[in-house]
Amino acid sequence: LESMGLNVSVASSGLEAHKLVAEDTGAFDLVFMDLGMPDIDGFEATRRIKDIAGAEQLPIIALTANTSARDRQLAAEAGMDGFLGKPVASEDLRKVLASHLATVSEKPDEQFDGIAPEGAGEPGRADQLVQPDHARPANTPAAQDAPEETMPVAAADEADPKRSMVFDREPIDRLKQEVGAEVLQTLVDKFLKESALRWESLSAALSQGDKDAIVREAHTLGSACLTFGVTAAGQQFRRCEAAAINDELPGEDVLAAIAPELADGIGQLQQLLSAQ
């Protein structure tokens, strides 16, 4: 987002997102909203933001790995203006941005009203976005009420050739084309650093049998791995998340099963970046 010339503010919860908008309704032009968060879920956060005087028309886009028909219906009923599934394709992200922000073009090689990507982060820019960035805890309405077939799964199709692929370079090639090699390396570095911390958090949650934390950390790790092409490990994290949502809490041994695929996938990712 910053490479597109946008200023980004990150909220760690639905309540924090509501507070940021309420404090200055003119500061933000678009909101990316996760559906599951530690306090209020994305549906309730959206309703509360839309109730703020002056924020009624603020576009709110769901950005989530939970893409069932029920989730989409609840998002629409809450007043959301769009829906993106994770891992999100850059072209889909750009289309959504272009439909709401005049400064963003659908074509990545075009300038944005004379503002080049390096303009990101400059004070005074109006293109502000807020993105609550947590996974769905198990006690959110959609997790409670959704039928079993709508729960997160490891892969859409057993016959999918990418299902067991340790590393898929397609997302990396797409990201490189979109943001350039330098920004891509920065994103990968951030992914590796944050994933190491998330791994430790997931390990602690598994040892303590903390269902909400298992769902949250496995969800985030799965989405991040799939975004950067670490496919097999990402699918394993998705299985872990789905099991926890269905009250089949995984044991600590699940990490031992994921570790080789994660290490192999990250190794191939780093090898590809070095070769490029």
Q: Which characteristics define this entry?
A:
276 residues; alpha/beta; 5-stranded parallel beta sheet; 10 helices; 7% strand
Q: Could you name the ranges where pLDDT drops below 50 across 5 or more consecutive residues? A: 111-127, 132-163
How much is the average pLDDT? 82
First-last Cα distance: 23 Å
Instruction: Tell me how many strands there are.
Output: 5
Structural class: alpha/beta
Q: Provide the β-strand percentage band.
A: 5-15%
Radius of gyration: 19 Å
Please give the count of helices.
Answer: 10
Work out the helicity level: 40-55%
What topology, given as strand order, has the largest sheet?
Answer: 1-5-2-3-4
Please summarize the sheet with the most strands: 5 strands, parallel
Summarize the helix and strand pattern as letters.
EHEHEHEHEHHHHHH
Shape: globular
Topology at a glance:
Elements: E1 7-9, H1 14-23, E2 30-33, H2 42-50, E3 60-64, H3 69-78, E4 82-85, H4 90-100, E5 128-130, H5 141-145, H6 170-179, H7 181-208, H8 211-227, H9 231-245, H10 253-275
Parallel strand pairs: 1-5, 2-3, 2-5, 3-4
Molecular structure report:
The longest helix has 28 residues, at 181-208. The protein has 10 helices and 5 strands. Helices cover 50% and strands 7% of the residues. It is globular, with a radius of gyration of 19 Å. The chain has 276 residues and is α/β, with parallel strands linked by helices. A 5-stranded parallel β-sheet has the order 1-5-2-3-4, sandwiched between helices. Helix 1 runs parallel beside helix 2 and helix 2 (42-50) packs parallel to helix 3.
